[in-house]
Amino acid sequence: METRQFGPTGREVSVIGLGCWQFGGDWGDVSDSQALDVLSTAVESGVTLIDTADCYGDGHSEDLIGQFLTSIGGAENNGLTVITKMGRLANPHVAEAYNYENFVRWLDRSRKLLRMDTLHAVQLHCPPTSVYCDNEVFDWLDRLVDEQFIEHYSVSVETCEEALTALNHNIASIQIICNVLRRKPLEQVLPAAKAKGVAIIARVPLASGILSGKFNESTTFSPDDHRTYNRFGEAFDMGETFSGVPYEQGLEAGREMVRIAESLPGNPTAAQLALRWLIDQDGVTTIIPGASRPEQARLNAEAADFAPLSGETLAELEAIYDQFAAPYVADKW
């Protein structure tokens, strides 16, 4: 699989990574054995970047990844980069919670669960916006690098404005929602990050799966799946669920993705088309689709094998955004 430089870290990571939110819940039922099989299949398929967070299943996702790393002899021996996030365990989730003492406590827990003495990178997990302007927060992160809790630190953001503010600090990467239905980061964030040598991690690349074209008006999700309980932002930012696009509009977009994919050489799936579009965006370093089954992980990785998309196809995908997403997302995030 193609690899790209992961910002200033000196690491090379696969263009398709693996997001592991689903191992901690919020995506329906994924058993521990399924999760471990997904990790194994992803790595066998060329994935070298694994992304998780301390709040996914209150540490369960990190623990499963730690079990997997132990079973294969560790991340370093297998050329893997493992990154996590911290901050969302704070209750209440306020700017004041982002302090050195909490950082140490959160990181000690993550290091234990992941079975790693020094974490490759930790990301501030969509903190309150004011945190990005707090120089003391980043001084503490520098101290944690010196103390070998972490090798690097990064941010996971909700908005383009937060991403641009974070670039004023010594970050390694920015994780941001970017997909066929969320194009705003292409305008300023990706060029600015590239100019500073900061990696871009594109999350929610399939818009919570709706770009796969596999859902319809009769599709139901379990009550504990965020696609049921957070469609209107009831639990957290609504942009994390279906990328903030109304479900009905997303279904139409998914059908168009299937139509376009069927017209392309090599017979990509609609999901692979969506991932290939992201790979082709200048400034994207890696993409972190989730997978609840090994076959999904394999197919996601194979998106990197397809040729870059033609200008005609890119225009068709832009039309999907203009018709089904722009009226709902263009002035947000």
What would you say this structure looks like, in words?
It is a single chain. This protein has helices at residues 32-44, 60-72, 100-114, 135-146, 160-166, 189-196, 226-229, 247-262, 270-279, 294-302, 311-329, and strands spanning 3-5, 12-14, 18-19, 49-51, 81-86, 119-125, 150-156, 173-177, 199-203, 286-287. It is of the alpha/beta class. Strands 3-4-5-6-7-8-9-10 form an 8-stranded parallel sheet. It has a two-stranded antiparallel sheet with strand order 1-2. α1 runs parallel beside α10. The model has no long low-confidence stretch (mean pLDDT 97).
Précis, in short:
This protein has 333 residues and is α/β, with parallel strands linked by helices.
Task: Furnish the topology, listing elements before pairings.
Elements: E1 3-5, E2 12-14, E3 18-19, H1 32-44, E4 49-51, H2 60-72, E5 81-86, H3 100-114, E6 119-125, H4 135-146, E7 150-156, H5 160-166, E8 173-177, H6 189-196, E9 199-203, H7 226-229, H8 247-262, H9 270-279, E10 286-287, H10 294-302, H11 311-329
Major sheet: arrangement of strands: 3-4-5-6-7-8-9-10
Largest sheet properties: 8 strands, parallel
Question: Which bin fits the share of residues in helices?
Answer: 25-40%
Compute the separation of the termini in Å. 31 Å
**Poorly predicted spans:** none
Overall SS class: alpha/beta
- Overall number of strands: 10
Shape: globular
